[in-house]
Amino acid sequence: MTNRKIRDTVFCHYMATESHLLELFNALNDTHFRNSSNVNINTLEGSFFSNIKNDISFLMDDLVIVLIEHQTTINPNMPLRFLSYLDELYRRIVSGQSAKIYGSELIKVPAPEFYVFYDGDDMSFDQQILKLSNAFESASENLELIVHVYNLGDGKSEILKQKCSAIKEYSIFSNKYKFYRKQKLTIDQAVKEAIRYCLEHNIMTEYLRNNEKEVIDMFGFEWNEKEEKDALIKVGEARGEARGEARGEARGEIRGTLRAIKNLMRTTNLSAEAAMKAIGISPSEYKNYLMML
Predict the structure, then answer these.
(1) Buried b (16+ CB within 10 A) or exposed e, 153-181
(2) Integer Cα distance of 229 and 209 in angstroms
(3) Is residue 120 left, alpha or beta, with left meaning phi > 0 and alpha meaning psi from -120 to 50?
(4) b vs e for 104-143, b when ≥16 Cβ sit within 10 Å of the residue's Cβ?
(5) pLDDT, tens digit, 9 for 90 and up, residues 114-170
(6) CB neighbourhood size of 8 (10 A)
(7) Looking at residue 45, what DSSP letter applies?
(8) Phi-psi bin for 12: left (phi > 0), alpha (psi -120 to 50), beta?
(9) % helix / strand / coil in the chain, to the nearest 5?
(10) In this predicted model, what pLDDT tens digit does every residue of 221-236 receive, in sequence order?
C-alpha cells in the first residue's frame, strides 16, 4: 500500500474509479453520459515542481473539470483551496500551449465544478454553498468560486443518494461506522463491524472484500486524525477554562481546575493523569488533584 493510499480516505479510494465518477457526475448534473472512457482522472498527486495534492479531480469529456474534496469537518476556506487546485490543473492542461497565452487566439479550457462531501457529525444541514467572495476584505464581483457541500449523514442529501448508488452505499458504510463508535467500540472494532454489516447487506461488497485491510488502515488513520484534532481543540478549551478560573480565589481556582480535568476526561477519554498533563498541571501536584477527583 503506497503512502498516498494510507493518507487517502476510504471515500476517495472507493469513489476514484471511472465508473463511480461517471455515475456521480450524471447524478450531480442530470446528464446521461454512458461511457466511462469519457472520464479522465487527473487528481493532483504532487510533483517535483509542485507539492499540491487534492482528493479527486477529473475531466468529463474534456468539457468539464470536476474537483472533489471529502471532509469530516466543514472548512470555510475550501473555495480558496479549490482556487489553488484549479490553477495547478489549468497550468497542466495548457502546458503545451504556453506560447499561445500571449497571442490573439483564445485558449479554451474545461469549465470547473467544485464539490465537498461532508462526512462528519453535524446534522444541521442538508446542503451548503461556500463562496470565495465571503473571504474578500471588501465587496467585489471580479472573481467568484462556488463550492457545493453535500452532507452524507443519515437522512441527508437523499436525492443525490437515490441518483448515485456509489454515494448511497458509501454513506451507509460511513454512518454504520459512526453508529458503532457511539456504542463505545474502538475505531478498528467499529470499522470491522461496519464492514461486516455491509457485506451481510450486499453494500460495497466487491470493494470491501478486495480491500478490507486497506479500509481498516485508511479509516483508522482518517478518524484517529479527526478525533485527535477534536481532542486538541477541547484541550485548548480546558486550558482556557482552567486559566480563567486561576484569576479567582484559590478555592475557586481549584474547583475550576477540577472541573476542567473532569470535562476533558469525559469528552476525550483521557486518563486523569493525561488530562492533568494536557492542562499544564505540574506532575508534583497530580496526587493532590487525584485525591479530590
Answers:
(1) beebbeebbeebebbbbbbbbbbbbbebb
(2) 30
(3) beta
(4) eeeeeebebbbbbbbbbeeeeeeebebebeeeeeeeeeee
(5) 999 999 999 999 999 999 999 999 999 999 999 999 999 999 999 999 999 999 999
(6) 22
(7) B
(8) alpha
(9) 60, 15, 30
(10) 776 656 555 555 555 5
Is residue 282 helix, strand or coil? coil
Return the amino acid letter for 190: A
Amino acid at 279: I
Pairing verdict, β 56-60 and 146-151 = unpaired
How far is residue 280's CA from residue 238's CA, in Å, rounded to a whole number?
Answer: 10
CA–CA distance, 116 with 125 (Å, rounded to integer): 13
DSSP, res 48 = S
Which pTM value belongs to this model? 0.75
Q: What is the pLDDT, as a whole number, of residue 102? A: 85
Residue type, 142: N
Is 274:234 a contact under the CB 8 Å cutoff? no
